[in-house]
Amino acid sequence: MIFDLPDIDPTRITTLEQAKQAIIRLLNGIEKLTQQNTLQAEQIRFLKEENALLKRQPPAPPVGHKQGSTQYSATKFVSHKGKKQWSKTSKKGTIPIDWEVALKEVIQCTCGSCEFTTIRTHEKIVQDIVIQRNNTRYSGKDKRCANCGKIYPAAIPADVKGVSFGSELRTWLSYFKYEGRMTMGKIADFLSHLGISISRGEISEMLLANSRKLAGTYAHLCVWGIKLSIYLGTDATGIRRREKWDTKGTNQHLHILGHNCLSIFKITRHYNSGVLHRFLGKRGREKLFISDDGSPNGEKLRLKWKQLCWIHEIRHYLKITAVLGIHKQKLLPVIEQLRYFYHLAKDYREHPIQQTRIQLEALFDRITTMLTGFDLLDHRLTLTRKKRSRLLVFLDHPAVPIHNNQCERDLRDAVRIKHISRETKSKAGDRSFERHLSIIQTIRKQELDVFSTLHGLLTGQLSPFVLTAKRIE
Questions:
Q1: Does a structural domain hold residue 191?
Q2: CA dihedral 370, 375, 377, 382 (to 10 degrees)
Q3: With contact defined as beta carbons under 8 Å apart, do 280 and 232 qualify?
Q4: Residue 331 has pLDDT above 50, yes or no
Q5: Which of 79, 136, 199, 354 lies at a C-alpha separation of 20 to 30 Å from 87?
Q6: Domain range for residue 322?
Q7: CA dihedral over 463, 469, 470, 471, signed as positive or negative
Q8: When comparing pLDDT for 27 and 366, which is higher?
């Protein structure tokens, strides 16, 4: 969109107030023209790069950021006060010991004496690991009674009937894929070096079989995990599925629902409030809710209590580019006041007292009702003021966080796996991805051993309730 400077008739300016308003309009017009020029320069640079790429010309060398850039870092409002001083600590008391070896001691001196005085006591821990295959051959005979003809088949153990790989190996496959972030090719190479004869297709089939075994545990998280939660956070990222017959692939969305003791992932085709309604369920819509202000989390998402993320809100102001010095002087104080509000809100959650609540409400109203004369900033302050009821939910419910960082961190595991293993290959692969990732991440949040807990869930030795034992304090 092309923007022109405002048409101002100097002959109609008769008062000082009219002159002041005309100057403000001109400054905002210059600001918008400068930003439009910057955007056009960026588009020209992009087109030049595309043209050079088509001509197979080498790309231009990267140029570092100039000093004094008008962009403000999103990490500026993060406080580092109270950071602990680093100090070296001994790990000897935390390392589990499997073997004890007594060092050989002298019994008799070369002079013939057997009496000694202890000068120093030695203790050294050496950590090591043993990785080896454990192939088992089961031998037996089916027998028929010579008298009555009754057949007695060989007593093959129930856990190996119909399978060629043991239960521990099948658990390791899920561990390697979703905890170790290994591709199926790397898993096959690693196992072949140990003497295990296995193909990528067999690995894929066993991962899907593990997914079917974890369906009940995943359903438990969706029911009891949500039911036992005080609040829920949500976020989403993109993920693709490309089946054998699909040359282009399908764009999908990976949702995360949870908190610091729970993770539930869900892959959906669409990303809107209707999908999020079904994902949350009736129990989820009755919980305290924390999210960003994206369109799926907007007014159409009918929830009982909804707290918007303050980091996302402050980020809107950090993205405002001020070119003129007078506008920079107006933008920086607003950002500083928002930073102060954010840290005061964090203190209120730890110590919710009435005096701090009154101070926060007054500070919010004072910031959002400011008229700076900088159109972009005034428009953003108006939008923030309209979201007052959703930004200040934490005043009535201090248990809910004021940011959505936990869900964003939870999505990092999924993004790393997506970058390494690329697209999923089927709908069953989508279900395997969301079930494995939900359960493994929840195991970590519950401070349990990942492999042993996952193995217990796959073999039916553990109840899914171990994943909901630890709750939000």
A1: yes
A2: 60
A3: yes
A4: yes
A5: 79
A6: 310-403
A7: positive
A8: 366
